[in-house]
TrEMBL record:
UniProt keyword Nuclease, yes or no: no
Record-linked PROSITE patterns: 4FE4S_FER_2
Protein name, entry field: Ferredoxin
Gene Ontology terms for molecular function: 3 iron, 4 sulfur cluster binding; electron transfer activity; iron ion binding
Gene3D superfamilies per UniProt: 3.30.70.20
Cofactor(s) listed: [3Fe-4S] cluster
Biological function: Ferredoxins are iron-sulfur proteins that transfer electrons in a wide variety of metabolic reactions.
Pfam families listed in its UniProt record: Fer4_15
Keywords assigned: 3Fe-4S, Electron transport, Iron, Iron-sulfur, Metal-binding, Transport
InterPro entries, A to Z: 3Fe4S_ferredoxin, 4Fe4S_Fe-S-bd, Fe-S_cluster_ET
Keyword Zinc: no
Residue span, 4Fe-4S ferredoxin-type domain: 1-29
Native source organism of the sequence: Streptomyces boluensis
């Protein structure tokens, strides 16, 4: 699984960082980003919940 954030769509609500803090953070502008080395989701079960929690659907998962 690969995690992707559409930074053009992200509005900085931070729901992903609150839901799965081991995978997501926010940059200095308040936009969400994947922590270094965590783009594979690291098997964190909360990643899928973070995708659902995003109010603008800026996060996607590539299951390949």
């Amino acid at each position: 699984m690969r995690v992707h954030i559409d930074r053009d769509r992200c509005m900085g609500a931070g729901m992903c960082a609150l839901t799965a803090p081991g995978v997501f953070t926010q940059d200095d502008d308040g936009l969400s980003e994947v922590l270094p080395g965590r783009a594979d989701g690291n098997g964190d079960p909360l990643v899928r919940e973070a995708v659902r929690a995003c109010p603008v659907q800026a996060i996607s998962l590539d299951e390949a």
